[in-house]
Write a structure and sequence with these properties.
The chain is an alpha+beta fold. It is built from six helices and eleven strands. The chain has one domain: S-adenosylmethionine decarboxylase, CATH 3.60.90. It is globular and about 70 Å long. About 5% of the residues have low confidence.
């Protein structure tokens, strides 16, 4: 077993995990597009988001200090939580940086830590594409790790595209006075994803190891047209219409995944 780093005083490293999570749908009519917005607003309203974040707090082994929540008009919601330490007796089988979704036990001291989520449902007025984006940030200070909530959050939103950023900032000192800029081994966020998640998504990394910056993009491998049609099913369209809708949906997902507008083969005929 690897010897734990003996620190002088409090662990001052800040570990930040940020998500952009996207869900894509096709809503054929103006009524369906409005119903999609209303559906998302109800499914992920401020109360529901608060429940999700409270589970995250439990998973990483913390306590809630304060909650601020807001539903917006015409759509969207936000929740911000300030969190603090929750000491628990450690077990030898649990490592500080083990993946989620549920912790066995941890010893933690948290200060100046927070969790936030903001939602952005929207619908294109012309081509029927509707998207839901959730931005989530989990920032902790100390030995406790936001990576423990990684799998839980991905499964909570069941999304088509996920972009994840993880960064360790600052430094902490050991008992000899030496500075340490990271306190755990990591070469990719993918190391902390569950096997079912790794199988379900295509993934690419952009990492800056010397700066302790890690970035992973995820695109769902599965595509069943009926899963993307809101308010109707595939039997309500002709084969030509379904082919056009599928091109539009895949183009939308590719553009979000690669962060650029597509041309050439992706141009509609």
């Amino acid at each position: 077993m690897e010897n734990k780093l003996k620190l002088y005083g409090f662990n001052n490293l800040t570990k930040s995990l940020s998500f952009n999570i996207y869900d894509i749908s096709y809503a054929n009519t103006a009524q369906h597009r409005q119903e999609y917005i209303e559906y998302i607003d109800e499914l992920f309203n401020a109360d529901r988001l608060t429940e999700i974040l409270e589970q995250v707090v439990e998973i990483i082994g913390a306590n809630v200090l304060n909650i601020a929540r807001q539903d917006y008009d015409p759509q969207g919601a936000s929740v911000t939580m300030l969190i603090c330490e929750e000491p628990i007796e450690p077990k030898s089988s649990q490592t500080d940086e083990s993946p989620g979704p549920l912790p066995d036990s941890i010893v933690a001291h948290l200060d100046k830590s927070h969790i936030t989520v903001h939602t952005y449902p929207e619908s294109h007025p012309d081509n029927g594409i509707s998207t839901f984006r959730a931005d989530i940030d989990v920032s902790t200070c100390g030995v406790i790790s936001p990576l423990k909530a990684l799998n839980f959050l991905i499964h909570s939103f069941d999304s088509d595209i996920v972009t994840i950023d993880y960064r360790v900032r600052g430094f902490t000192r050991d008992v000899n006075g030496n500075k340490h800029y990271i306190d755990h081994e990591i070469n990719s966020i993918q190391n902390y994803l569950s096997s079912d998640t790794r199988k379900a998504y295509e993934m690419i990394d952009v990492n800056v190891y010397q700066e302790n910056i890690f970035h992973t993009k995820m695109l769902s491998k599965q595509f069943n047209i009926d899963d993307y049609l809101f308010g109707t099913k595939s039997d309500g369209f002709s084969p030509e219409e379904l082919a056009w809708i599928e091109r539009r949906l895949k183009r939308e997902m590719q553009e979000i995944f690669y962060s650029r507008n597509m041309s050439g083969a992706f141009i509609d005929s």
